[in-house]
Amino acid sequence: MDSIEVVLIMLLAVVASAYIRRLLPRAIPLPLVQIGLGALIAAKSSHGVDLEPDLFFLVFLPPLLFLDGWRIPKSGLLRDKGTILELAFGLVVFTVIGAGFLIHWMIPAMPLPVAFALAAIVSPTDPIAVSSIASSSPIPKRLMHILEGESLLNDASGLVCFRFAVAAAMTGAFSLQTAALTFVWLVVAGIAAGVGLTMVVTWIQRWLVRHFGEPPGSPILVNLLIPFGAYLVAERLHASGILAAVAAGVTMSYVELSGHAHANTRIQRSAVWDTVQFSLNGVMFVLLGEQLPDIFRLAGASLEESGHVNRWWLVAYAFAITGGLLLLRMVWVWASLRLTIFKQKIRHQPRHKIKLRLLLATTLAGARGTITLAGVLTLPLALPDGSPFPARALTIFLACSVILISLLVASIALPRLLAGMTFPAEPEEQQEEDLARRAAANAAISAIEKTQIELMESDSCVDPEVYPQAAARVIAFYEHKLKEVDPESEQAWRKTDSAEKELRLAALEAERRTVFDLARHDHISDEISRKLVREIDLMEARYR
């Protein structure tokens, strides 16, 4: 019963955080509010939450990474795959080496393998934190796609480096060849597990639907279970469950293009996933806040290992490590941009200058999050000889401090850094949207004309004018979409379109109020009311 109460309290804290966030300055991201509420729960609660890292990874990460992989723009991933891979893998290795030596130099009592383990676990950026910060900062779309792609892939590389650093601390030995082969297996087998399981489950589900029909809710439940299945299969193969969940999400986005899912299923599934995403994101950060008081107390006791008695050294270490991570990231991003410009020069392509503000924005946007917390809590309690694992509490404290400081720095500095900057819209996006709308409208008109003829031939008893009139009304709607607009009148047409949108929204709101009023006075049943309001809501969603 206590566990259920804790879960309910944390879910209530997530709900409260969304409203508290609206009362605070816009620069404060939602994760910081949720961390604060978690710390408040820990202060008022008589018993804390024993966070099991393996359970945490299984429950929280697969669905969230699956959804991120599903929804991230694939065109952006493919277009900037070189930059994303450089950040997701090259930057992680660069950070582990650079930050590892920095930490060992600052804290000689922390063995070098443990310092590398700490550097490895703080190297991955967090997709949830990045998305939350981006919601309140005007980050360019292309940069946002790169940051999201990086955060999806660098979890695997960071956790692999962390695993080998911990193994070196436990055994005192490290094999580069074994590490490289293991890394390849983790990546290849993890991706294969995610892709394979998604394809198999999708094929089985389609076969069942084709032969037995589609039970209500069943496709949504299957969709929710896919990321957990991919994660567990990959873990059984000793591969990366995180990459398996991401690969399953990316595969699902391509499976979705087949269009086999019913429209009603897609609408309901989207609502379910939005709720799951909001709940799990929030609970993760509330849990982080709930863990902080105990972590701080344990870290204070471990200061003697570093030879210092003053607790302010903890703060100094945390800020120094965060500063080192930011500096290493900025150096790598700058070098990556210089390499891109050099390639453009060789290929005689138009070259772009490195903008300092965007370079700093890319550096600061690499916030750390709950994956760092969950990973660092998997540190062993003792060495094989039974002695305590060196500097374990201090390592956990420093990792949590880096999470908090990176979130604070990004949430405070990014809005000010990017304030006043205007980013041109990506023209290819508008062109693609126009192309899709026109192609869809032309296909719709052809289908209407064909269906009109079929209906007239099959129903000879009806008035011959009924189907042509109905077809004319529907075709008029699509012809409006196909209306050619010359460049001189485009601005006026856009204003007209905007005005029409406002008028339609006002009309839909009036419709909804009337339906609710009729239901309140028992002029129509609740069932009819829900049906009509759903139709109005779906229509309104098109114009929002």
From TrEMBL:
Major subcellular location class: membrane
Name of the molecule in the record: Na+/H+ antiporter
Membrane-spanning ranges: 6-24, 55-72, 84-107, 156-176, 182-204, 216-234, 240-259, 312-337, 358-383, 389-414
Pfam family, one: Na_H_Exchanger
Keyword Lipid biosynthesis applies: no
GO molecular function, one term: sodium:proton antiporter activity
Any Gene Ontology CC annotation: plasma membrane
Lineage: Bacteria, Pseudomonadati, Pseudomonadota, Betaproteobacteria, Burkholderiales
Protein task: Na(+)/H(+) antiporter that extrudes sodium in exchange for external protons.
